[in-house]
Amino acid sequence: MQATAELKHGAEQTIYRILFAISFVHLLNDTIQAVVPAIFPILQDSMHLSNLELGFITFALNITSSLMQPVVGLYSDRKPKPYLLPLGMVFTFIGMFGLALSPNLLMIILSVIFVGLGSATFHPEGSKVSYMAAGRRRGLAQSIYQVGGNTGTSLGYLMTGLIFVPLGQFGAIWFTAAAALAIIVLTYIAGWYQAELRLNPRFNKPKTTVSTNKGLNKKIVFAISVLILMVFVRSWYSAAISNFYSLYLIRDVGMPIHKAINLIFLFSLAGVVGTFLGGPLSDRFGKRNLILFSMLGSAPLAILMPYLDSFWLYPVILLNGFIILSSFSVTVVYAQELVPGKIGLVSGLIVGLAFGLGAIGSVVIGGLADWIGLKAVMHLAGWLPLLGIFTFLLPSDRQLQKWHEEKLS
After folding, report:
1. Which letter, b or e, does each residue of 190-219 get, where b requires 16 or more Cβ atoms within 10 Å of its Cβ?
2. Which one-letter DSSP state was computed for residue 206?
3. Do residues 170 and 215 share a domain?
4. Residues 197 and 216 in one domain
5. The pTM is what?
6. Nearest to 244 by CA among 236, 232, 233
7. In b/e form, how buried is each residue of 348-378, taking b as 16+ CB within 10 angstroms?
8. How many domains does the chain have?
9. What is the pLDDT of residues 329-378, one digit of tens each?
10. What is the domain extent for residue 60?
């Protein structure tokens, strides 16, 4: 009885050293992934690549990552393999080494596929580590984990000028050092992960809690569908701002290039803060409520942005980035609680879906911009967050707990 109580108490503790370690690796992983679009201007000049060929590179990276994440998550749910974490980063190391030395487009695409495979292995397993180390503070834990990734992604805006302009394509070789450091940290985390599997059998063989109640299962499927819609809204709106809003400001508004890029960096930076604070806020006010606030709270700001002058645009884009990305980690935790026995699968599905939808969104938005004009697309994109009204169809946190109890009964 005492041993069981100690195990339970240990499982409820928040292991901050592991959370900060996995967040640091998340920063390294997503910084490395951000190298790919950051190096585009250099590759286009040195290899004379077309925009379509650059699109193939992005597609290869994002699709490899997004499609493989739920596969890795499903496998690790059935057979937990802690050392998948450093092994995945070995793929990333190989990919960055290849990217630095690739002489042609085919080798570039092959290299980014290796980077995508490494990312696909890391993300669902990283989410599972944060879940295991969370204790009772799952929202905070997922925020600590995700903020590392968002910070790494935002660094991509700084790489082109700082690294690739002076060093060229070969500058990517420096990021093999980041991958090597990540392998060392992940080996330490994998040791903790393996010990935790021995100490807490519920992590080693998670209870799938599949209900025989068909009505309840249909409700869960419907809730997952609504959650995926929210991921779609956030991913497409973020793709519109990150990839096309600066072009709109430069071409249609007449804003200087450096100011337009600074605004996108501010949007990304505010998103990092929103991601970090979203988790603990959801622990306090409820996950469904935070997702609702994230979607509908950003809607009026998103609609207003195309009409604002530069004076008002700075505070509004900061606030908008903070609000809409505050639900990034919360949607993952919400999905984990919808399907508590499939932590790796649902984490890979939600995060992988964000990557995949963002890639598809960039293609669709770019095509629409060629068809109806970039200005019209930016005005239309501002209305996307209004689809957050469907968040009202998600079950409350209390209802989620009730469903979990019904599955166990």
Report:
1. bebbeebbeeeeebeebeeeebeeeeeeeb
2. -
3. no
4. no
5. 0.71
6. 236
7. bbbbbbbbbbbbbbbeebbebbeeeebeebb
8. 2
9. 788 888 878 877 677 677 777 777 666 766 677 677 777 877 888 889 88
10. 1-206
